[in-house]
Amino acid sequence: MGPITHLLYLVSTSLMIPVIVLLIAGFAWALLLLGGLYGGLMARRRMAPVLSQVETDLAAGATLDPDDASLAAHHPALHQALTRVHAHAGNPIHADKVLADFDLDADRQLNPAKLLMRLGPMLGLMGTLIPMGPALTGLASGDIVSMAANMQVAFATTVVGVFVGGVGYLVLLIRKRWCTADVNTLQYLIELAGHDTH
Fold first, then answer.
1. C-alpha torsion 145→147→152→157, nearest 10
2. What DSSP assignment string belongs to 62-131?
3. Which of 155, 134, 152 lies closest to 143 in space, CA to CA?
4. C-alpha distances in angstroms, 154 versus 28, 37, 88, 131?
5. CB proximity list for 166: less than 8 A, separation 6 or greater
6. Alpha-carbon dihedral sign for residues 132, 134, 137, 143
7. Is 194 left (phi over 0), alpha (psi -120 to 50) or beta?
8. What is the DSSP letter of 196?
């Protein structure tokens, strides 16, 4: 093994500890996202009748109430957006801006899931390939114990990486659907309140 390839081998093996640390952090983050997803699901179930009542009131000709405590408690972001629209009543350009800002904020909430979805499999692959070198070296020298230990690390990092990426993908799918629904709801409420966004 030449000096350059030996240096490359040392660099790759030195990445093993950071990869494992990042995978453990990613696993903990994935569990937090799953907990947040469950909390979000429960919150949206409680929010559904409140939104339905707001839509019914606006459709019946009621004015938009920026001090609606029930909406503020169940969906603060939506309440804040509606309050901004109400503050500039009759200005469709401002309503468009509020809707666009709300859409951007909703999309920004998807970033953690997007990051996990991409980093999980990448770190898992790195954690799989890095121990393969020492494992093959152990196999060539007849050190089965060393080979088995390195293969165990390789398989474990693969499983954790796929899990982290899978959780990221699941959370992204569900939260993206929620964000789209929230944007549609906001646009509908704005139009019901008489502030055309078109």
1. 150
2. PPP-TT-HHHHHH-HHHHHHHHHHHHTTT-HHHHHHHHHHHHHHHHHTTHHHHHHHHHHHHHHHHHHHTT
3. 134
4. 19, 30, 59, 6
5. 120
6. negative
7. left
8. -
For residue 21, the SS3 value is helix
Residue 168 CA to its chain's centroid (Å): 6
Whether the Cβ atoms of residue 64 and residue 85 lie closer than 8 Å to each other: yes
What one-character DSSP code corresponds to residue 6? H
Q: Which of 171, 35, 31, 39 is closest to 115 using CA atoms?
A: 171
Q: Which residues contact 143 (CB under 8 A, 6 or more apart)?
A: 137
- pLDDT at residue number 194: 63
Segments of the chain with pLDDT less than 70: 1, 61-72, 74, 89-90, 193-198
39, burial (CB in 10 Å: exposed 0-12, middle 13-18, buried 19+): exposed
Q: Is 5 helix (H, G, I), strand (E, B) or coil?
A: helix
Q: Tens digit of pLDDT for each residue in 122-147?
A: 999 999 988 887 877 777 777 788 88
Tokens 């899931």 label which residue? 113
